[in-house]
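Marked as duplicate of an earlier ticket. Keeping the data here for the record.
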Amino acid sequence: MILVVMMRLFSPRKTTLMFVIRDKTRTPLENLEPVLREDIQKIWDSVPKPEAHKETPLSEFFNVEVVALSSYEEKEEQFKEQVATLRQRFFHSIAPGGLAGDRRGVVPASGFSFSAQEIWKVIKENRDLDLPAHKVMVATVRCEEIAKEKYSSFAANEEWCLMEEAVQSEIVSGFGKKLSGILNFSLSEYDAEAIYFDGGVRSAKRKQLEEKLLQLVQPAHQSMLGHIRSRTLENFKEAFEKALNAGEGFSLAAVTCTQNHMDKFDKGLADAVIEQAIWDTSKVRDKLRRDIDAHITSVREAKLSELTSSFEAKLNEALSGPVEALLDGANSETWPTIKKLLQRETKSAVAGVSNALSGFDMDEQSMEKILTGLENYAKGVVEAKAREQAGRVLILMKDRFSILFSHDSDSMPRVWTGKEDIRAITKTARSSSLKLLSVMAAIRMGDDVDNIETTLSSSLMDMKNNAAVKDRSITIIDPLASSSWEEIPSSRTLITPVQCKSLWRQFNSETEYTVTQAISAQEAHKRSNNWLPPPWAIVALAVLGFNEFMTLLRNPLYLGLIFAGFLLFKALWVQLDISGEFRNGALPGLLSLSTKFVPTVMNLLRRLAEEGQKPIATTDPRRNPAPVSRNFQNGSSSSSDSSSSSSSSGITSPKEGNE
């Protein structure tokens, strides 16, 4: 560096560079000198030079000479002669061609003072030549060496290495005090060894050493602070949870636990402080406080969510079942009852939530938001259940119609005996089903009055009146030809007028079969219980059959024949079960009787023949006759015996008369 500055400030001046090779071997100097000159030339080429001397050769500044001396041990005399010759060259160095180089820059003695002043002026004005004093240079070099030595000694200190390794995984008790002691020991050793050097340099190097040592231990210190923060946060979470489980108020538990654990963190922070370091630990403390606040916020949100969900579940349980039951049995008091139920359950839930929220120390706006959300949830439960029931309104209408139509006022199944007014029963059942439809058509949670029931009744039940009106005027407007109800917003509409009309049409078509079956059953019952001819036929028979009646009175034999025929007909009636066969209809009854008639008649005749062929047994009149065997069910045997005895008496009576 000095060479470059000298080349830039002063004119070139040759200097002799003499390289002395001792203990010359057998290798000729002519072979060694080119190698040495080549190495010197490489060094010259690598030296940075000013622009003016970029291409200046080495010979412009230096005279390079290479001298070889023989070995002192082998050729002592020759060595001494060569040294004496070389000494003479130094003695006569200023002679022309001497070691002092060229004489171009030689100044006369009278001008030396002025020349020296100019040279010194140039040196002072150029900062590149402002070199420190020798004392400062020595102090700088030596203090740096001592500082490096103490830094290495500290880094290899066994106690420090153990602390550095342990602090990576856990908190080290007394970390700050122990580390401060090790640092003080290293710095005191530096002070002891560097005490005799320049004070300014010593202090500067000591400060640099201290900074380097603190940089070395700072990661361990940060790890220590991180462990203290993590443990404090975990302890806070445990203590906070225990306080809440013990029933302590949320806000009180949060404030108490936060204050206690921040104090513990400050104590742990003081234990980790290093005396030599002035590090700002407020960021770590602020981060811990943010973590604690974030945990408190998350726990508060979780508790509030759990509390809200609990009361919502209670509301759902308290409202869903009763609302569904009320809508299933819909009547004029359904919606007022649902409204009272909603108000009662909502009031109870709001009171419970307000009491539970008192421990959270919430502002009025936040509390009002939660309570409003709970009230809206209760309304949503009712509306959801109403919409669910509205989706199955047709099933509910058919169930209600079936119950009212098929059961009497005592909830007993109806038996269609012919005395019931099916038209009135049908109208009552359909009116009740229409009432259910009108109740399910819209949500009525307010005090507003609507005309849905009147509209449905006038449009769907009074069909004949509507038909007559339509006949008189074709300009009438169907009140159900709309997609909304009057004075009912769409948000509270469950079934639109058009949907009501469609549902009613489907309801009538699906219940028509039940009514038809009831009418058929009633007519069948009437036919099965009315075997007499009409009164006019009875009168006609009495008038027109008077002569035949008188004939029967004059000849009792006809009465016997008629009586025998009646018995035979009665036996056939019982055997064939004619009334039972005709319950399923006329055609099935006739077909069944046609297959059973001939076998039954043949059986009766065979029985009569068997009874007629039996000999008359002489028995004691005081003894009871032998019991007649029962071959037929439901009184058929007695009828057969009676007919047989009547036939026998009818057969023998003419003989007796002839006799």
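See parent ticket for discussion. Residues 97 and 576 are 172 Å apart (CA to CA).
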